[in-house]
Amino acid sequence: ALDILRKLVLDSRVNAAARVSAAELLSARGKRDDAQGLDSILDQPEEPLLKIAVARVVWSLGRNRKGTDVLKGYLKSDDPNVRSEAALALGEVNNVEAVKDVLTDMANEPTPRGNRARLLLDREELYRQLETSSGLERDPFVQQLKEKIAELESERDKLREIAARKSSGGDPLLTELQQLIQKFFINEARTKEEEL
Question: Whole-prediction pTM value?
């Protein structure tokens, strides 16, 4: 089904509104492969709102920098609707800081667009609070790296503990065994640590 959406977005015979809707669905439900080939639309003379929707997909799924570059370019548009949609799209791809002023202005509008702007600003504020209060990162890759580092540090600490035990008399099991031998062996002379 997602391949059909991608083909619909790429089909210039389909009206722009349907292509925008297909791009928005791809952005919400697609995977990295679903963004392949869509960046070609960004180089063509297409409807700005379509290019904004496609740029969001290209960045959010494919991490293609061309997507954010196009969105930032539309921030300079003479059309306020195009500027607003570009700002919202940048906010939705976690680039709120770049468009904070525009979103703040839009947040005062009693419209669905104003609601989207408020939600993006609120989300950004919550992320900021989480980062400062608990050290969490938004980027899942950074989070994975931190988890892997913690795992490796834990393994390193276990290995250091084992090495320390061996250098300071050995393994606890061997130490206990040695103590039992010394306690119950009849010939005490043969229970010296060096001989065991």
Answer: 0.60
